[in-house]
Amino acid sequence: MAWTEARSAAHAAGLAARPGPVSVPLAEADGLTLAAALTARTDLPAFPAATVDGYAVRGPGPWSVAGRVLAGAVPEPLRAGTAVQVATGAMVPAGTEQIIRAEEARRRPDGRVDGRGRPEREWREPGAEATCGDELAPAGTPVTPALIGLAAVCGHDSLPVIPAVRAAVLVFGDELLTAGLPGRGRVRDGLGPQLPGWLRRLGALPAAGFAPLGPVPDSLTAQASALEAALAHADLVCTAGGTMRGPVDHLRPALAALGGRYVVDRVAVRPGFPMVLAEVPAPDGRPRFVAGLPGNPQSAIAALVSLVAPLLRGLAGRPEPPLPTARLAERVPGRGTFARLVPVRVERGVAEPVGHTGAAMLRGLAGSDGFAVIPPGTDGEAGAGVRWAPLPLLPGQRP
């Protein structure tokens, strides 16, 4: 499958399987996605609110001071020839014609106040920011702290959201170590420690009740059993390794044993072409997903960006945005009929390829911002504009 087609298929599968909305308190909504449009439940502000400290006055001065209004109080209407001291944010009395700023007002010996107001109105009218019923954010909008604050000042105590995806990670391979120095044919697991962090940045949460397993042995029985255990707790299981068709690659037989259906089975891209995305039926009728990432670390992260990122956006009910563009700092050869993903560091719209980018390497990836996409059948020429796929960011961040 072509790389762009595979991304679209992953996103569409997520959208079709997205869970129904739930209502959560504002404090629990950060990082989730609005399941319905956010609308104002009241005018914003809901009353005329002073924007400065000073004196609300009516009629010509000097004015007799008839008291003061602090934030949270409801004042009496203002009579002609009188003034009321007001605080920033306080409700402006009905009948106010102007507010004299505190620093520009003069208190006379007889107790009255004199001064000259500025031409602009020194209070916010009801509905200046929003009127009751206005749509403030559409469904599919990521919930950020600022959006939570906006919802609160408009009178919301909770928000309708798409619940977070529960994710689990399984790493396959008899050759993997989880501690100590590599050597004598054994290598350290470089994916198990990093994949949960990437998934968190994509908005997924660790699956409750599922203890992450160490490297799963290279046997069909062990891998099918581990997958079944993980799927009992998770909406998405990311596996690493076993995606080829060699003598110790058991992911496909394990998926077949679980009734899996392929959404994507191999992609015309380098690195990462043996990546897999499958739906697995569940008792509740909503499919669970298995994303099979290649065992080579850079290939696995390329697959994460290619398939898991759009899948999770679909499951969250979010649209798939167009990839950003940048200019290549140097020439990058293509990979024939395959697309090529090249780790790059992007600054001020310029994508600089990084070194140490073999499929098994992580050094270059650790210093990159994402992958420049060289379309099939082309080379990336220096100065040419290319799309690039950002590595996952923290919720609310933008590339």
From TrEMBL:
UniProt keywords, alphabetically: Magnesium, Metal-binding, Molybdenum, Molybdenum cofactor biosynthesis, Transferase
Domain MoaB/Mog: 168-314
Compositional bias of kind Basic and acidic residues: 105-127
Annotated segments matching region Disordered: 105-137
Pfam families per record: MoCF_biosynth, MoeA_C, MoeA_N
Protein name per Swiss-Prot or TrEMBL: Molybdopterin molybdenumtransferase
InterPro entries, A to Z: MoaB/Mog-like_dom_sf (IPR036425), MoaB/Mog_dom (IPR001453), MoeA-like (IPR038987), MoeA_C_domain_IV (IPR005111), MoeA_C_domain_IV_sf (IPR036688), MoeA_linker/N (IPR005110), MoeA_linker/N_sf (IPR036135)
Purpose: Catalyzes the insertion of molybdate into adenylated molybdopterin with the concomitant release of AMP.
Record's catalysed reaction(s): adenylyl-molybdopterin + molybdate = Mo-molybdopterin + AMP + H(+)
Stated family: Belongs to the MoeA family.
EC numbers, comma separated: 2.10.1.1
Biochemical pathway: Cofactor biosynthesis; molybdopterin biosynthesis
Lineage: superkingdom: Bacteria
Cross-referenced SMART domains: MoCF_biosynth
Cofactors named for this entry: Mg(2+)
